[in-house]
Each structure stands twice: as structure tokens, then as C-alpha cells.
Amino acid sequence: MSDTGSGPSSRNASVERGERQSDTSDSETTDIRRINQQPFSREGRYDPNRFRLHFEKESKEEVEKRKKLAREKVLQQVSDKELEVDINKIYPSEKGLGFPRRPSWNYEMTRENLLKKEEKSYRDYLDELHSRNPPDTLSHFEHNLETWRQLWRVLEMSDVILLIVDIRHPVLQFPPSLYHYITGDLQKQAILVLNKADLCPPPLVIAWKHYMASQFPHLEIVCFTSHPGQPYSTVLQKKRMRKKADWGHAGGPIDILKACQNITAGRVDLSSWEQKIQRDAVAERFDGECDDGAESVLMEHQTDSAMELSSPSQELYKDGILTLGCIGFPNVGKSSVINSLVGRKVVSVSRTPGHTKYFQTYYLTPTVKLCDCPGLVFPSRVNKQLQILAGIYPVSQLQEPYSSVGYLCERTEFLSVLKLTHPSLLEKDPHDRNQESEKFNWTAWDVCEAWAERRGYKTAKAARHDVYRAANSLLRLAIDGRLCLCLRPPGYKQWEKHVDLQDIMVLQGRTTEEEGTGDRDDEEDGESSTEPEEERDRDADDDEDGDDEDEGFGHPRQKDNKPPGFTVNMYDVLGENECA
Fold first, then answer.
1. Domains present along the chain, CATH in parentheses
2. If pLDDT is split at 50, 70 and 90, which confidence band does 550 have?
3. How far apart are CA 83 and CA 490, in angstroms?
């Protein structure tokens, strides 16, 4: 399971974390890789590994095959048509790509009998799924029954479900089977939240919104961003010392409120929620930041005994309280949405898939309750490389990241963005490198080697280019939105003249489409809808060497003299001189 070119310490630690086994799983097979193992004492009552991610293992032969391909395959820019993704191809209805349902039960059953019934039902679900889908056709998806149980409880408790997706690739994270189960079997309503809207050009935001509305006509759809007007201005621009995240400045809470008002139709008094949004807006205008102590938030931790023998409530809005369940894949920003709705940090945020381990509830107001569910990866037919770039699989646990780097480079202008020098030109004069680099054929391995050279990544013993670490760094840039890959809906056309364009630009915190890649003050640079830097510093999945820091590449941008009619390519996100 070794990775050529990687430093031994980082490589071995990553593999070791993934291969350790635990007896806490409901799906104990040799085909499952248990990720993010945490040390704990057997005498302790709490097992921290109970809710860790369980994904299917890949064979050593598959890994080596992709690694060889990354060394040999010449990268070719794909056509714009290749960026279009159809939800019906990601979740084909004939393949049975549903999700495990909670089996029926009654109060006469014991706890042990209930758990055994759930485990049997889950095994039957996996057998049926694999029987209808040949090997290597399924994406990575969650194999930990404990985490699926969290979803069942949240669905049962909630009156309205917030299905949160990343606007850069929403169809990857919107399983139709879940939507139809919510609206059909449970007879509840769902709201699709297109999160991280600041990372996409406004016309593309509108295009995705219209596409999802055409596929699901009765679905309420809102756009959301936790950090409007704060795009990355360079690929490595991040200050370690920065003002704390301003959760009260989000764009979209009022739209979620309006959607809930349409659904509840006056059956719940939401005036307190509306007043809270107005207070947060006033505090932002006068103070520039919200007072964390202004309002207390009641938080409830759910216990096992409360969850295991609880039936779905047939009564909506019980006691006049609206319960909003927040459900989504890892890294779509569920915790950031909750923090933004509350107006201050109540949930820790991380780009590590599986960071939220256990569902919790928060009283936003006396009549509105939020319920946060751990991120769940549903089975689909999405390309695994694209799944990695969407942040669904932990980057630090990848045995072979190079093919994902190649997939990214074929869909972005990586040379102009990263200012790479082809490895074969490293001995030449620096002035001739960039021009000649464009004439060379690039492989994914070349890109990683060139990035390792640019960033100074070396292996510990031999001082070779640490291509494994470089590949991980590039993938993190993509996940964070600093090297932005945005997919498009089928039949994508330009929406620059749409009547809603101005509203989207206001939501994003910009007044013109070119704004967002313009001049910014270096002291307040670089935060998008992912998460604040202080949380990343504590993230166990973060680069220990500070890949995300500004190490001399993040100089303030010089103002360009743009000719009339100049248009910024929002897919590149970065300008021509940002890595210079």
C-alpha cells in the first residue's frame, strides 16, 4: 500500500490510520476500510470510533494501476460538455441506489432485538445493492450502520428537512431517493439549500437553481453563503492571524425563513425568527460583528436510549415548534449553515469528512429548533475522482491521490493558475521556464512534481520531491474553493441577462460580476464558505506543515488596467499574476 514519491512518515501514518480495525462496526467484513481511528481505553464507556467513516476498500492492484496511469497518461483539456452532469446518470433509478431504511418495530421489542433487526435489514440492503451494481461501478459510500441510525432519528424528529448541497456540484449530493422518501413515505417537506454560493459565478448559480427546479417542481430551493463578499484572491492567500468568522453576516437566512413560512402556512409562529434575523442585521451594520453573548442557545445532546425506541411522530409542529433537520454529505457546510442561522458559532466546522459525529439539536428561537445530522455519503454512480474533489472522501486517507489531480487539471487552467515549471525544465533559466512549460506534455505526476518543487516539499530521508504531499495539497486547494472546479447542469447556457442575476450578486456580496477577484486588503483576505482558519488549525486532517498558509505567494494583488469589456473567467477564480 506504499505510495511512490511520498515521505515515509506521512505515508505510513496515513495507511496505518486507515488499516487499524475496531469491533464497533455493524458491518464487520474485510472489505471495509475504517477511517480516522482514535485511541481509547477499553474500560471507558464511550467509544470515539463508533461513528467514524466506513468505506469500501480498494485492492492494491487497483491502486497501483491508477498510479501507473497517472505517470503515463498525458493530460488533455476536456470540452465544456464534459463539465455537464445529469442527476439521472449519477443516481439512475433502475440501479436501486436508495439508502437503508429503518425496519418496523413495536414497544414490545427489547433493545437487543431491535438492534439485531436493524443489522439484518442493513445487511439485506447491502446485498441487494451489490447484486444490482457490478463491482467498481459504485462510488464510495457510508458502510457504518451507526451513522445511518443518526439519519433515521433526524428524519423522524424533523418537520422540515434542509437538504444542503455544495453549489459547485449539487447533483452529486442530492440523492432523489432521500427526497422522495421525505415527501412520500414521511409526508414531510424539504428545502434544498445551495450552499457556498460565493464560490460560483452568478450565472451558474441561477442555472443550477433552474435545473433542480425543473427536476423537482415542488421542491423549495434557496441559495446560501456563510461568507458573502469574501472570495479567495490568490491560490495560497491565507493569513494565520485574522479576525474571527462573522457568522451573523451570512447571505440566505431570510430566504430559508420565507421558505419555511410558505411550508408552515401560519401553523407555527415564526415572528421570533424574523426578529432575530433583523437584530443580527442591525448588529452587523453598527458593530461589524455580532455579540456572541447577546443571545444564549439551548443545545440538547441526544442519548442512545432516547433514540433507539422512538417512533416517527405523526404530529407536525408539536407544541408549536418547527424542527428543521439539516442533512447533507460531508463538506457541504451543514455546520456553517447552522452557525450562520444562529448568528454565532455553536458547531465546530472542519473540512474533514465525518467531523460531525453525533446529531444534536439547537433552539434557534423558542419556536424554531435546528437538528444537525452527521454527514452521510449515499451510494451513487459518480466518478470516484470527482467524489474526492467534492470533499466526500478524506484527502489524507487517499492511497493514490494522483488520478484525482489529473481529473482536476483536465478541467481547470492549472498552468496559468499555479504557474508551474515542467520538471524537465528545472535546470533551465527561470525566464524561459514558463513559456516552454506550455509546450510540454503534462501528466498528473508531472503536475505533482512541479507543485512539490514550487512549494519546497521534500521527502524526509532522500530529499526527493514529495509528490504525495503535493498531490494532497492540490486536492485541498480544490476542496476549499481556491482552485475552483464548478460543474454545470445539462444543456448549460449563459444566464448573464437573467432577471435574478442581480439578486444572486447581492447574496454573494458583490456588486459586479468581476468583483470577487478584485483588489482586497491583505489583512482580511481569503475566507470562503468552507470554514475559518482557527478551526482548520485544530483539524486532525489538516496538513501539519501548513500547506494552507501564505508562505510568500500571497502578495497583495496589483490593480490591473483592464480594457473596456474585460470579463473575468470565474471558473479560473484566480488572475494571471497571483502565484507570481
1. 89-108+127-231+244-284+294-372 (3.40.50.300)
2. very low
3. 9
